[in-house]
Amino acid sequence: MAGKKVAMIGGRTSTLGFRALGVETFVAPLPEDGPRIWQGLDLDRYAVVMVTEPVFEVLEREIPGFPPFGGLPVVLVIPAVTGTREMAVARMRERIVKAVGADLER
Amino acid sequence: MARIQVNPNRMELLKLRKRTAIAERGHKLLKDKLDELMKQFMALVQESRNLRREVESRLADAHLIFAIARSEVMTEEVEESLSVPTMDLEVDVDQASIMGVRVPRFEVRMEGAIDCYSLLSTPFSLDAALLYYRDLVPELIKLAEMENNVGLLAQEIERTRRRVNALEHVLIPSLKETITYITMKLDEMERSYRTQLMKIKSMQEELAGRG
User: Fold this and answer.
1) Spatial CA neighbour of B48 closest among B152, B150, B137, B135
2) Do you find a cis peptide bond into A31, omega within 30 degrees of 0?
3) Domain ranges within chain B, ordered by starting residue
């Protein structure tokens, strides 16, 4: 299969470093700009879309069915420069509870 | 449990017995599948959790070094330096299967060098930060793949569990109940037939005795 790209949506500081590495970065000056950027993305081009936690939070709230699941692109939530909010850990825990029926956090 | 609406005859009884045997076998197989899925799922969860922890701490380091680089020169300068990347990042997407669950598999291809800027106008720490980020990208893609797999497996576990439960608590009991119903009905018919026979025989004997 043809190669796909990696995109990233996040604040200016969080995305800047990744831009030099060939990641297609989309700067959301405010997390509230996230939905506009997400809707403008040509999702078929990307295998992975990295989204910083503050933007992810807004996207999840504003866009029904976000994050898309089961196909491509895969949405990866990563901490912004301001530090981690452990959102990914919480999401993982939710999935485990749903699948196993119990919280397995030790 | 609801009984299945069928005619109580021997043919249906045989059919239902066969169906019960198949359902029980299916139930056992699905249960085994569920156990194995669970095993794989737990291993994957552990692995992805460890990777997430590592990636997050390394990302924090990279951000820190990058912040130092940015503090040494003007922000605009850094932005300008990084605005035309010479590096190409692509991900080859393939498909793999975990216990029959189709999952995407990513392979990262990175070409070109990271130094798309003048070494004179940028601080050394920028190189260091970018090297940090560069080493991190494959890990991030790996993490995306793994977390996605965890989600897909979780979905499959849920689906399999629902099927196991449906077989165990709905289909098999109702089949068994219907079998019992047909057996009882057939026994009842047999008894009634025998009573008739006995009655006829006694009437015949009575007639023979009179004649």
Assistant:
1) B150
2) no
3) 23-161
Alpha helices in B73-123 (DSSP H): 75-81
CB B87 within 8 A of CB B111: yes
What was the pLDDT predicted at B119? 64
Q: Are residues A21 and B143, on separate chains, in Cβ contact within 8 Å?
A: no
Q: Which residue has the tokens 């300008």?
A: B80
A3, B90 Cβ separation under 8 angstroms: yes
Which top CATH class is B23-161? mainly alpha
Name residues of chain A where pLDDT drops below 50. Answer: none
Contact A22 B112 (CB under 8 A): yes
Q: How far is CA B52 from each of CA B33, B86, B183, B193, rounded to the nearest angstrom?
A: 28, 28, 59, 74
Residues of A in contact with B143 (CB under 8 A): 76
Q: Are A75 and A51 in contact (CB under 8 A)?
A: yes
Contacts of B198 (CB under 8 A, 6+ apart): none
Instruction: Compute the distance between CA of residue B81 and CA of residue B163 in angstroms, rounded to an integer.
Output: 57
**CA gap B28, B198 in Å, rounded:** 47
Question: Tokens in use for A102?
Answer: 């119990």
Each domain of chain A, given as residue ranges in start order, spans 5-81
Neighbours of B39 (CB within 10 A): 11
State whether ipTM is beyond 0.85.
Answer: yes
The CATH number that domain A5-81 falls under is 3.40.50.10580
Q: If you average pLDDT over residues B145-166, what whole number do you get?
A: 91
Residue type, B166: A
Instruction: Extract the runs of DSSP E, i.e. beta strands, from chain A.
Output: 3-10, 24-27, 46-52, 74-78
- How many CB contacts within 8 angstroms connect chain A with chain B? 132
Torsion of CA B7, B11, B17, B21, to 10 degrees: -120
